[in-house]
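tokens incoming
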């Protein structure tokens, strides 16, 4: 802590971002500050702090900071660093889905209508987001049926042949010069009015088409029109009649129970409630205001920025308004609603947040017990020096020393991080020697530490070996040879589910009810599954090649073509002569040879 004391004396008065590190230099928290000196020092004062803050402070061994020109720059940089490092004590969104919008390309002479999930500054008009059971595809179909606007991206310069939509009355074929720019503009204007909430013309047309289809006993088509009418009714029902028709805002409410936090967003466009979403947040920031501000910054990296955000009075209003202006070049009114229609909307969002928090808290607790809390308990049970945030588990798979493979699976905070999984084909080991194979795999893995590849292969906190004392000892030799420090090493033996560590000759037996053991079993089973899948793929390809090489007339090129077409030996065995002859380079005669050989020998 002497390093921290000295650094605290040197902190500047500038705005900026501070980065908290643990003893292994892992980033565990990123925060912004209006005045770095005042803010960072708060963590190390003896004043009373919430339990979650105390937990973080206990793990701080060093910190860095970056000075910025303004608090707004600090807010943007904080968000970027959180996305990069995913620190365990920062807010992280549990739901990051984006909703669809209808886009109208207004820069074209004959604007087309399409579905998108990304809002761009391209001169287009965007309507939505559409959520709560409203299908964007159906919206486009209604636009086409009612107003004959085009949905395609075909260029409208030069004469082209009309497509089917023109002949069935769903498009005016501007690409074929069948409609003037002025007449088409009227259709677009009416379509935009529909997207703004004026549904009467569309309803009347759909009603008429439904009746006509039913009269002609085309009941399937009539049912389709009926479903579209029901969808329009759904859209109409979302209008909040007591509101000013032109309220166009996102309403954001925050709630916390001291342990967990949640946010609810209600999306209102032109007085119509488009829908809402609730988000569970990971460990919250220090104050409710910072938590809400941090959420808003992350959320609008992936969603349309509205002209108004209605939120609670502890939100950092001026900071957010300046941030949106600088980041998105958009003036966003942040309204701290206290009365009237907007306050009632905020109260609705608040009730949704509290309901979500209350109903979800047990589920969240259970998930934490299976993941983060299991990691913490494992640290205590095995006397590990550090919280095992990144765990890697290794397994070897082969049959009689053939097609030997190794697997590496990664869990972060007790959850699988599948994008970090890796597979190894054993290159240097002769025969079935699992110990030597493990040594090769771990050597290749640990050689990446301290190199340019370490960013892709970060240093793990804990390495788990599938096996007993023998496997553990063989990997320990590699650790000693390379002077590896700061990485814990254990093995999990399957028969009794015993855990072996480097601190004792005796195994550690963990209760079968303990979530820590269940987590170790999950990562061990995942490593085995990943290894065996890779082995089977290699083994089936090798067997397929060796069998095919024994057939007259089937050389390397034909074997490759057969493998590309069928993939497995079983599929080739079940193929007919005609199907085999369809493969590039396989004549009818060779197809007969393959078919006869497989039937006689396999």
């Amino acid at each position: 802590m002497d390093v921290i004391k000295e650094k605290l004396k040197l902190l500047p008065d500038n705005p900026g971002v501070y980065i908290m590190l643990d003893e292994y230099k892992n980033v565990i928290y990123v925060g912004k500050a209006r005045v770095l000196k005042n803010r960072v020092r708060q963590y190390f004062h003896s004043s009373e702090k919430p339990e979650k803050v105390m937990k973080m402070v206990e793990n701080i061994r060093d910190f860095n900071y970056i000075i910025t020109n303004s608090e707004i720059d600090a807010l943007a940089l904080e968000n970027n660093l959180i996305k990069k490092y995913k620190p365990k004590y920062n807010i992280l969104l549990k739901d990051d889905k984006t909703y669809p919008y209808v886009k109208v390309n207004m820069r074209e002479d004959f604007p087309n209508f399409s579905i998108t999930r990304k809002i761009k500054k391209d001169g287009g008009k965007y309507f939505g987001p559409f959520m709560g059971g409203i299908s964007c595809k159906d919206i486009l179909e209604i636009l086409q049926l009612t107003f004959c606007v085009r949905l395609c991206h075909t260029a409208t310069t030069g004469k082209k042949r009309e497509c089917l939509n023109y002949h069935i009355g769903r498009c005016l074929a501007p690409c074929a010069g069948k409609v003037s720019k002025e007449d088409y503009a009227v259709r677009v204007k009416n379509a935009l009015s529909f997207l703004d909430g004026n549904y009467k013309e569309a309803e009347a047309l759909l009603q008429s088409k439904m009746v006509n289809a039913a009269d002609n006993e085309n009941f399937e088509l009539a049912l389709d029109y009926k479903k579209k009418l029901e969808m329009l009714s759904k859209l109409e029902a979302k209008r909040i009649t007591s509101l000013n028709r032109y309220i166009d805002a996102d309403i954001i409410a925050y709630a916390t129970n001291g342990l967990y936090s949640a946010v609810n967003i209600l999306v209102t466009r032109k007085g119509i409630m488009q829908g809402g979403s609730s988000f569970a947040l990971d460990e919250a920031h220090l104050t409710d205001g910072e938590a809400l501000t941090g959420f808003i910054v992350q959320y609008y990296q992936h969603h349309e920025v509205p002209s108004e955000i209605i939120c609670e009075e502890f939100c950092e209003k001026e900071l957010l308004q300046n941030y949106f202006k600088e980041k998105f070049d958009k003036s966003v009114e942040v309204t701290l609603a206290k009365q009237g229609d907007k306050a009632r909307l905020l109260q609705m969002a608040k009730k949704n947040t509290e309901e979500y928090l209350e109903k979800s808290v047990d589920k969240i607790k259970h998930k934490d017990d299976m993941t983060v809390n299991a990691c913490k308990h494992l640290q205590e049970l095995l006397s590990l020096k550090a919280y095992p945030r990144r765990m890697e588990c290794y397994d070897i798979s082969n049959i009689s020393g053939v097609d030997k493979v190794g697997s590496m699976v990664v869990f972060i905070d007790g959850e699988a991080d599948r994008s970090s999984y890796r597979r190894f084909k054993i290159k240097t080991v002769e025969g079935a020697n699992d110990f030597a194979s493990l040594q090769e795999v771990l050597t290749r893995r640990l050689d990446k530490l301290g190199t340019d590849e370490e960013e892709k292969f970060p240093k793990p906190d804990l390495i788990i070996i599938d096996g007993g004392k023998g496997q553990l000892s063989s990997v320990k030799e590699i650790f000693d040879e390379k002077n590896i420090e700061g990485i814990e090493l254990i093995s999990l033996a399957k028969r009794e589910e015993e855990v072996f560590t480097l601190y004792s000759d005796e195994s550690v037996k963990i209760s079968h009810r303990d979530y820590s053991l269940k987590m170790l079993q999950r990562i061990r089973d995942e490593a085995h599954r990943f290894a065996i899948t890779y082995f089977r793929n290699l083994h089936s390809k090798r067997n397929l090649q060796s069998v095919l090489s024994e057939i007259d007339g089937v050389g390397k090129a034909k074997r490759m073509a057969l493998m590309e077409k069928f993939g497995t030996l079983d599929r080739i065995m079940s193929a007919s002569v005609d199907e085999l002859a369809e493969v590039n380079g396989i004549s009818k005669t060779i197809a007969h040879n393959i078919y006869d050989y497989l039937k006689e020998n396999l």
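note: The mean pLDDT is 81.
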